Structures are given as C-alpha cells and as structure tokens.
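Hello everyone,

My group is preparing for a crystallization screen and wants a predicted model to guide construct design. The compound we'll soak is pyridoxal-5'-phosphate. Before spending weeks at the bench, it would help to have a computed complex in hand. I've included the protein sequence and the ligand's SMILES below. Output in structure-token form would be ideal because that's what our pipeline reads.
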Amino acid sequence: MFEDVINFIQDKFHTKDFIPLHEPRFVGNEKQYLNECIDSTFVSSIGKFVDKFEEKIADYVGTKFAVATTNGTSALHIALLLANVKENNEVITQPLTFVATCNAISYCGATPIFIDVDKDTMGLSPSALHEFLEKNTYIKNQQCINNKTGKVIKACVPMHTFGQPCRIDKIKDICDEYCITLIEDAAESLGSLYKNKHTGTFGQMGVLSFNGNKIITGGGGGCIVTNDEILANRAKHLTTTAKVPHRWKFVHDEIGYNYRMPNLNAALLVAQLEQLDGFLENKRQLAKKYKEFFKKSDIVFVTELENSKSNYWLNTIILRDAQQRDLFLDEANSKGIMARPVWALMNKLPIFKNAQSGDLTNSEWLEQRVVNIPSSVTM
Ligand SMILES: Cc1ncc(COP(=O)(O)O)c(C=O)c1O
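Reply:
Good plan to model first. Here are the tokens for the complex, ready for your pipeline.
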C-alpha cells in the first residue's frame, strides 16, 4: 500500500537494509578532541571542552550565557527551580511532548496543566493558552492564581516539537501579561529560528538536549541558555553541587545537584557543533525532497511556517486517520524503515491523569495521525 513511500526512503538513504529514525554522524574532529581529553586526564566535569562548549553554544544561539548539564532533563529541572517552581505550584505545558518536560515539573513538586497545541506547529497554542488563562485565573500580588485549585501558576514550558518552532513571540506576550515565567523546551530545536531569532531565546531561559538522537550529540548532554547573568551563575552553582568556590575547602551552601556536563561529552559536542551548519543544510535538503514527494500523495508532510526556520530534526507526516497510520507503521517497520508514532499524550499517562487540562482537540487529532520518518543526515 505504501510501496512508493518505502522505495523513496530506501532510495534517499541508499540502502534496503535497516534505516534508523535518526542516527548521529561523527565525521569531524570528534576522535581528536576525545583523545585530547583523555590525554589531559580531565574527563569529568572540569575541563577546557566544557567551558569552550558553553561559550560556543551561547554564541550560536545568541544568548549571553549557557550552562552545560548532564542532559536536557536536568537542564529543565534546574531552569524550573530557578523560576522558583516549588511544591504545590503549577506549570503549564503541552500534552504533546516527551515525558521529560513533565518529569522535570514533577521533580520540583509541581503539577503540570495541559494546554492544547496548534495543528500546524504541533507546539503550544497561544490562543488556547490565552483562553485558558482568561477563563480560569486571576492575578494577585503579581502572581497568576488558578481559580479551580487556588494554586500559583509559576511557569509555562512550551516545546518546539520535532524542531518546528511554535508561535513563541505570542506565548511570551501572554506569559508576561499573566506574570508567568517562560521557559522554552528547545531540546529538539537546535538550529531552528522563529522570526530570525533562535528558539530557546525568547523566554527567561531555554533548554537544549544533546542526547544521541538529537541533531548534534555528546552521547548525552544538555544546557540552559539565558541572557540573565544572575540566573546563569545560579544555574552553574546548582549544577555543581552548590559548592562555594575555594581552592581546597569543601563547603556547600544549599542542596545542589551533580548535573554538570563531563568534559568527555563536551569534547564530542565541540566537534559536533563545528559541523552543525552542514548537518542543518543536509537535513533541509532531505526535507525538501520529502516535501516534493508527498505533494503527490494524500499524506501531509509537515513544513515550517513562513516566518520560521525549522531544523527538520525529525521529519513528520500526517496520515488520514489512526487506521492508515497503523498500516503505514506496520509496513514501514516490516521493511526495516524505522517510523514511529508521536508520544502518547501526557494527560493520558497514569502519572499525570489527575492534572488539569484545557480543551485538547488538536493534540488528540495529531496523536492519532502523526508519524516520524527517517531523518538522519544523509552521507
Ligand atoms: C521535548 C524534550 N524535552 C526534554 C528532553 C530531555 O532531554 P534528555 O534526553 O537530554 O534528558 C527531550 C529529549 O530527549 C525532548 O525531546
């Protein structure tokens, strides 16, 4: 039934063997920098590559500061703590996201509130956000209070799904109006721009992930990007066990975390970052070919909005309904082409079943139809 799609993908990846969804490419200075790192003996969380990576990634996204972490989840956790998210607070996010976004909210003792996404961006919908806040909250002492629970809504964490930027400028305006701190989950969107500004740089803090499945990887890794020096210093302090700097004394002035990125991971990442522009161009070319191909079919290929530039991290198609999606998944995976549906919506997971939600029509529609198809940098 989907033979033409399968042939097309096999042709683009030059193989009839297994084609993964997204595999990393190590074709630059990775081995050289790893060797330098090993020879120096600085393999753990102190070392020149971690500092260098922070400098380079901040420069790349256009923020004043970046703080490197062990992974994207720990970066989200720290960003939420820095936004003062505490026990009994609430945090708005989208139900169509990877579980890490909601796990980090839970680590702070807070509860997520799920607000719908826009169909075209698959990211948090500013109109749904505004409608929810207008109907369900009031402002008291510069805090947004939920009418239903009486709890403070401290932060909002939209996510740029599969690298497609959401309407982040509008979300920022709404968050400002309702005294809510904006933290962007840009784990999937390194290299994606909205109105010529890098995703992750609209809110008070943005979070990136460098997991093995991302556009560049350190094996593992994450970071917080921000223009706020105080927050950046606090992030560094909290991610390094809250140790008070001293040449030999070990004194810690609050409960901290062992979340700093090891130098080994940073060595890989410095090399990967050198290749990012090439990876982005290569992925853009692949997306262009997919777009042309799917024009001829009844399957929709998701493309960037006019004012956005997507990194096309994971190419996304929308099938007619859940039945057609399942047929596609079965046929593609049987032929060795890795394709996968979108995550189960967070509000449907038992761990978040008691969380409050707005109307989730778009998320539910997408959940039934979205499939990711192979998206690696082609060689
Ligand atoms: C949307 C989103 N948020 C957070 C994360 C967490 O990143 P990590 O796996 O580096 O902890 C990921 C990716 O894994 C993600 O896709």
